[in-house]
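Suppose you are handed only these lines of text.
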Amino acid sequence: MNKVIIAIDGQASTGKSTQAKKIADNLSINYRDSGAYYRAITLYLLNTNINYDFKISQEILDQISISQEYKKGNFRIFLNDDDVTNKVRGHMVSLSVSNYAKKPEIRKFVFDQLRKSAESKSLVVDGRDIGTVVFPEANFKFFLTGKPRIRAERRHKQIDDDSVKVDIIEQEINIRDKTDSTREIAPLRKADDAFKIDVSDLTIDEVFNKILQKIKSD
Ligand code: DC
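From them, the structure of the protein bound to 2'-deoxycytidine-5'-monophosphate can be written out as follows.
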């Protein structure tokens, strides 16, 4: 197979990373989680007490080294050689990451890392602006959407905590959709040439089959 770049963008809780990993397994190609880069940088900056209100200098960015690894269902992310796979999902990082992810110098850092990863190898990447900004030349672009209520119900199942109400998750999802799509830097938007899939009434395997069919038919 020639080198391919596959971009999976879309709304929160539509299963982007699940699909991206399945593609990586099926086609035996590399996978990168773009959100995890933003999370790892956020973790570093929180740990070093660098607030998002300040410009993050090149000197600081030069101290950050991030690598990702994906093998058969097992994703790991390393920050300066420490395995931070679980830490990047922590509460503080989740609360702060969108503030850091808005910063142009941080976006450029992630952009450079992703482009470097794709220099010589095929890659599937999930995120918000992969098909529009990072890899506008990607061979295949997918954009996943879903009804807020259904995404909230799916997330509720994952959280597995009855004290968290579906209505509240749905409200959070609506707010997140709005902030993601109206923000000034890298807003969430479907690339004109992306294949849109509404995942609301589809199982994981049904979405995956649509994606695979599209890739194989070209
Ligand atoms: O997908 P996630 O929740 O791990 O993403 C973490 C944060 O990074 C979230 O605030 C959205 C942001 N993000 C982004 O701005 N651009 C991307 N390509 C991926 C994630």
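What can we learn from it? The beta strands are 5-10, 30-33, 66-71, 74-79, 82-83, 123-127, 140-145, 195-198. The two ends are 13 Å apart (CA to CA).
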